[in-house]
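Chapter review: from sequence to fold.
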Amino acid sequence: MTSKITFAFKKCKKEKRAALITYTVAGDNTKSNSLQILKAISKHADILELGFPHNTPIADGGQIQTSAYRAIKNGIKMKDIFQIIKKYKKKNSKPIILMGYFNIIYQYGENKFLKKCKQVGVNGLIVVDLPWPDNKLFAKKCKKNS
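The token string follows.
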């Protein structure tokens, strides 16, 4: 079975154009506006990256750090992020890649996190602070959970 991410890239290749991948931080502006932002940018994007905020985003630039701080200040939690994705996926099929830091996944519980990702329709993950070979065990869990 072809993943939605692979399908999006194949579609763009067929159309002889680059894929547009957008990024937004979940909870930036407000929790409720996060869903509206996701819907708005999905009209023009091929793949959506949704960041889950972290209080020490070392791999991010100033704009994303500021967005993450606003989202945390707004009280965003992983359960809220999963709700945003679930609501988005009810009427939209564009692939969503969830991006963030392993510490949050670890605290949430790796298996619980992956199960929830699958339930709400996350199509991929970017875990910025879990490089190879440290990612091998988590990568196996991801593959096992599709």
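Two observations follow directly from the output. The chain has seven helices and four strands. Strands lie at 21-25, 47-51, 96-100, 124-127.
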